[in-house]
Amino acid sequence: MRAVKPHWRLEHLEIFITEEQIRQRVAELGAQISRDYEGQDLLLVAILKGSVVFLADLMRHITIPHSIDFMATSSYGAATESSGIVRILKDLDIPIIGRNVLIVEDIVDTGHTLSYLRRMLLSREPASLRVVTLLDKRSRREVDVPIDYVGFEVPNAFVIGYGLDYAEFYRNLPYIAIPKEGFFDEDEG
Ligand code: 5GP
């Protein structure tokens, strides 16, 4: 089997949201969510894999009792373009009927993934269903989907880092970056 050679071209990245900006905003979101759900049950549902870094930081800024669960989805079609058809790769472990569910997303782009997930989760009759996303690429939206908490609005550019990947790499970057010219060039040899 041929080993995958990871791209690691940090010199071709423009840092768009710094580690410090993310830290501050995630703390604010955690505080706001803690206030909004004070005295209530709360279940965070994180969408794999992109939202794991955000979830790990966000939940440590939520100061009220809560539990977490995960779902994994994949959209058919090209790797970096959402086709609107969503497939569930991993479902929740626990029932959500009667619970206050907060979907934790990394980025909302066309909105198709979130729209599908909302409809599916609503059919399971949670007490409430809200959405927090770290990034909102609002200019790309194709379906109108309500978002309750937004970390940052981003322009129409492909972004990586802080959980977001390019070909499964770069999720560990502590900042959000935009690839510049040269980043996507094929490796030689
Ligand atoms: P949507 O269904 O809203 O078009 O797409 C949402 C999913 O597409 C995200 O959860 C993410 O996996 C992927 N995605 C959309 N935009 C970007 C981007 O700029 N960078 C990365 N790495 N993934 C993206």
Write the layout of secondary structure elements.
Layout: E1 13-17, H1 19-36, E2 43-48, H2 52-59, E3 67-75, E4 86-90, E5 100-108, H3 112-122, E6 128-136, E7 149-153, E8 176-179
Parallel strand pairs: 2-3, 2-5, 5-6, 6-7
Antiparallel strand pairs: 1-8, 3-4
The chain binds guanosine-5'-monophosphate.
Offer a concise description of the structure.
With 189 residues, the protein is an alpha/beta fold.
The portion of residues forming beta strands comes to 25-35%
H-E order: EHEHEEEHEEE
Q: What is the CATH architecture annotation?
A: 3-Layer(aba) Sandwich
Just give the CATH class: Alpha Beta
The number of distinct β-strands equals 8
- Compounds present? guanosine-5'-monophosphate
Q: Count the domains.
A: 1
Largest sheet: 6 strands, mixed
Structural class by sheet pairing and helices:
alpha/beta
By CATH, the topology is Rossmann fold
Ranges where pLDDT stays below 50 over 5 or more residues in a row are none
Distance between the termini: 17 Å
How much is the average pLDDT?
92
The number of helical elements comes to 3
Main-sheet strand order equals 4-3-2-5-6-7
Approximate helicity band: 10-25%
> Looking at the structure, what is the overall shape?
globular
Gyration radius over CA = 17 Å
